[in-house]
Amino acid sequence: MGQRILTTALFSLLAAGVAPALAADVTMPDPNYATATAVMNVIKAAAEQELGLEVSTVTTTAVPVIWEAMDRNKGEVDIWPDVWLPNQQGLVDKYVNGNKTVKLAKNGYEAVQGYCVTKTTVTDHNIKSVYDLANPENAKLFDSNGDGKGEIWLGASGWQSTNIEKVKARDYGFAEFFDQQVTEEAVATASLDRAAKANKPWVGYCYGPHQNFALYDLAMLEEPKNDPAKYVVVQPNDDPEWFEKSKVSSGYATTTVHIGYAASLAERQPALVEALERMSFKPEDVSKMAYEIIVNKKPAPDVAKDWIKANTETVSKWFGH
Asked: Do 142 and 90 belong to one domain?
C-alpha cells in the first residue's frame, strides 16, 4: 500500500519544517475521513496507473500543517485534495495568493455544510433552525448523559470548520446550553447511529458529499443566508485572539471543494499537474465512494480502482489521452 502513518515524530518534523527522507515521487495526506480519503485514493491510483508514479501517503487531520508542508515545497506534502472554500480561504489567501508557494486547481465540485439533525428532531420536536437550539429546554432534548446539557458535535480537531462552528455556537446563542464536542468523525457517527436507531434527537456539523446522507434521515437546520458582514472568520494560525475577533452569525457562502498542490510540483511532475488542473468530481460519486468505504467496509484503494475502471473515459481526459 505504501502508506506511512504520520507518527508524532514525523508530525513534529513537518511542523518544525524538517523534511523527512521521502523516496516516493509524490506524497499526499490522508485525512482519515471517507470523502477526502476516496478522492485522494482516486488521484493516487490514477497517477500510478497513467504516469507510473509512486505515490506515498501520510495520515493527518491537521489542515494547517498540511498547508505549511506544501508551502515548504520539499516533497513532504505535494497534493491536498480537500481544499474546502470558504473554510480554508485564509490558508488560500496566505499560501496561494500571498506566498504563491501553493497552487489551487481551477476545477472544483459543489458541497454543502452546516448543522444537521435527525428527522425525528424536526418531526417530533419542531426544531428546524439554529435559533431553536438557543433554548435550554430544547437543548436538554440532546442530553444523552443526564448532565443537563445537550451534546453537539462541532467537528474534528484540526478542521478549519470546527473553529468556525465554535464561533457560530457563541453567536447563534446556544453555546452555554451545550457540551460542544470536538472528536474524530467516527466517534460522532457512532453517536448519530445510536440516536437514529433509537429515534432520538441528535445535532452536529454535517457536510456533503457524505455517506451519512444515504445512511440516515437527516435534515439541515435553517441558518441565515450568508452575509459577509456577519461572517468574519479569523483562524488560530493567523491570530491567537481568533475567537474574540471572529463573528459568525450567518451561514456558509457557496461551498466548493478544490485540489491544492505545491507550486514546485509543476516542475517536478508537469504531466500530473496538468491532470490535476483537469480533474473534477461529481458530488454523488464522492458520496457513493464514501458509502462503500464506511458502510460496506471496502478498502479505499479498491473503491478508487473500481471508480477508475467505471470512468475510464473521464480519467483519460484528465491525462490528455
From this structure: no
Full residue range of the structural domain in which residue 293 is found: 3-109+257-318
Q: How deeply is 139 buried, as exposed, middle or buried, from its count of CB atoms within 10 A (0-12, 13-18, 19+)?
A: buried
Is pLDDT above 60 for 203?
A: yes
Q: How far apart are CA 55 and CA 202, in angstroms?
A: 39
Q: Average pLDDT of 59-83?
A: 94
Question: How does residue 24 score in pLDDT terms, banded at 50, 70 and 90?
Answer: confident
User: Is this structure's pTM higher than 0.85?
Assistant: no
Rounded (10°) CA dihedral 209, 213, 219, 221: -30
Selected residue with higher pLDDT from 139 and 320: 139
Mark whether 146 and 241 lie in a shared domain. yes
How many distinct structural domains can be found in the chain? 2
> Which of 248, 278, 306 is the endpoint of a domain?
248
Predicted confidence at residue 154, as pLDDT, reads 98
Instruction: Check whether residue 172 and residue 275 sit in a common domain.
Output: no
Shared domain check, 95 and 53:
yes
Which set of grid coordinates corresponds to residue 37? 480519503
Mean local confidence (pLDDT), 83-97: 95
164 lies in the same domain as 90: no
- CATH code where residue 186 lies: 3.40.190.100
Secondary structure E strands in the chain: 3-5, 26-30, 55-59, 79-85, 102-118, 150-155, 178-182, 203-208, 218-220, 231-232, 247-248, 255-262
* 86 cis-preceded (ω within 30 degrees of 0): yes
Average pLDDT for residues 201-221, to the nearest whole number?
93
